[in-house]
Each structure stands twice: as C-alpha cells, then as structure tokens.
Write a structure and sequence with these properties.
Layout: E1 3-7, H1 8-15, H2 17-24, H3 33-49, E2 53-61, E3 64-80, H4 87-93, E4 97-100, E5 105-118, H5 130-148, E6 152-157, H6 161-169, E7 173-179, E8 192-199
Parallel strand pairs: 5-6
Antiparallel strand pairs: 1-2, 2-3, 3-5, 4-5, 6-8, 7-8
C-alpha cells in the first residue's frame, strides 16, 4: 500500500486555511486527546510561526485519499541533569551537548517528534501501522540531518507500559522526564512525560 506524506504548509497554501481546517476535522484520536487537539487547533499556527512542521500521511481507500495519520517535527533545546542511558550512548550524545555549570545540567538541541498518531476516524487507523508511521517521521528527520548534521532524535510520551514498549521496540530508550505544564495536564494523564531518545544512524 502506497502512502503520501504532505507538509501541512503545502496544503493550506494551496487551498487556504478554512478548507484545510475542514479536512483536519476528519481526524480523530480518542486514545490521545492531545494529539487530536494539536492537529485541529495548533498545527497550522505552529507551522506559520515556524515552531513545528506537521506532515499529513494519506493512503488510498475506496479510490479516495484519506488521512491515516500524521506527525509533527520541531527542533528543541532540552536541559537534562541526569541522562539515564548507557555510558556508550551518553558519550556519543555529549558530543552534541553543552554543560551549564550554573544549573549543573547539559543543554542539547535535538529534533523532537512532538506529536504522532493514527487517524481512528472510520477505522482509517487500520490502513497503517504505528511502527511504519514512526519510521516515516524518523526518515524525515534523517533527511534534515543529512543536510544539517546530527544523529539523535527524541520524543515525549505518557508513562504507559504499552507506549514505552512500543517506542523501545522501535529503537528509542528512556533518558529522562519532563514535568507537565499547566495547559498540558487536562489532555495528559499523570504529572510528567517520559523522554525517549533514538540514535537514527542505526534506524
């Protein structure tokens, strides 16, 4: 089955924001309200401001292109005091980090998979696997790193056993936590998000 990956920017520049928002209304993800809220309420504005780029993944279904999922990518500076990963991997990532003596933490600029999720509307989620959707996101980052350099990417997820196992199966390892902001707490469970890292040179 073939898939198309379309930058949201190209969609709203082509047909306008109103029609684009109508299309995005078809996206549903009751498993993660934050993922659904982002694509419907924030994705266009974040794209216009250059905060994050959202990519829509479509597939042909009954002779029509439908949204099967999406992912959003951004570049983010994170500060971590203790990186909970192997010494070998820590040594590699420290080449991209700067140490802040005041906060006693490392500052690292990394690509972030800020949002990712399948479209559960009309069972379109069955048209793509989560593994493939994540691979498409990582492939986009690898293309950018081929131009700009770098080899790592990270994401944040709820502290859920199945989610953690899914990302670990796809090459991500846990390295820290981030406390939720006030406006995030109503769309996420718990008080923090797990931070998970992947060496995309091995992906």
């Amino acid at each position: 089955m073939g898939y198309k990956i379309i930058n949201l920017k190209d969609i709203y520049n082509s047909i306008g924001e109103i029609k684009t928002k109508e299309i995005l209304k078809e996206y549903k993800c009751e498993l993660n309200k934050d993922v659904e809220y982002f694509i419907k309420e924030k994705s266009i504005e974040f794209s216009k401001q250059g905060i994050a780029e959202t990519f829509i993944v479509t597939s042909s279904y009954k002779k029509k292109d439908v949204i099967v999922g999406y992912f959003a990518i951004a570049n983010k500076v994170i500060n971590v005091k203790n990186i909970v990963i192997s010494k070998t991997k820590k040594k590699k990532i420290m080449k991209f980090a700067q140490y802040d003596s005041e906060t006693k933490s490392y500052s690292i600029s990394l690509p972030l998979i800020g949002q990712i999720g399948k479209n559960y509307n009309n069972n379109y989620n069955k048209l793509i696997t989560g593994d493939l959707l994540l691979k498409l996101a990582c492939d986009k980052i690898r293309i950018a790193q081929g131009i700009l350099g770098g080899r790592f990417a990270f994401l944040e997820c709820e502290d859920d056993v199945k989610l953690k196992e899914f990302y670990e199966r796809n090459g991500f390892v846990y390295f820290g936590k981030r406390n939720l902001e006030k406006d995030e707490k109503d769309k996420n469970s718990g008080d923090y998000l797990l931070q998970m890292l992947s060496d995309l040179s091995n992906y």
